[in-house]
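Module 6 notes. Inverse folding takes a fixed backbone as the condition and produces residue identities as the prediction. Think of it as a translation problem where the source language is geometry and the target language is the twenty amino acids. Below is one complete input and output pair. Work through it position by position during the lab.
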């Protein structure tokens, strides 16, 4: 999921999304919340597919969700930060 303009985010003030140096972040912007929602959606749909007996498709979505989580952790994990609660 991509957010293509600042107005499309719930961070709707003009200076909410800035770089460490204070310069404005330019679109496209994908907030971490968007990644979390995409992962959660895959897990939810996998549950529905499983209930419908479509186990292969459910497994595929669960693998995709696990891959999203892993790639996000690899890209953004900060070793010197304390651990935070994670979603299932």
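Target side of the pair, the amino acids:
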């Amino acid at each position: 999921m991509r957010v293509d303009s600042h107005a499309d985010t719930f961070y709707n003030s003009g200076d909410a999304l800035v770089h460490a140096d204070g310069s404005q972040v330019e679109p496209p912007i994908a907030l971490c919340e968007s990644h979390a929602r995409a992962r959660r959606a895959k897990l939810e749909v996998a549950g529905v597919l499983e209930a419908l007996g479509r186990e292969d498709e459910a497994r595929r979505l669960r693998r995709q969700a696990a891959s999203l989580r892993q790639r996000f952790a690899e890209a953004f994990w900060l070793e010197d930060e304390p651990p935070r609660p994670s979603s299932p």
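Reference fact for the lab report: The mean pLDDT is 79.
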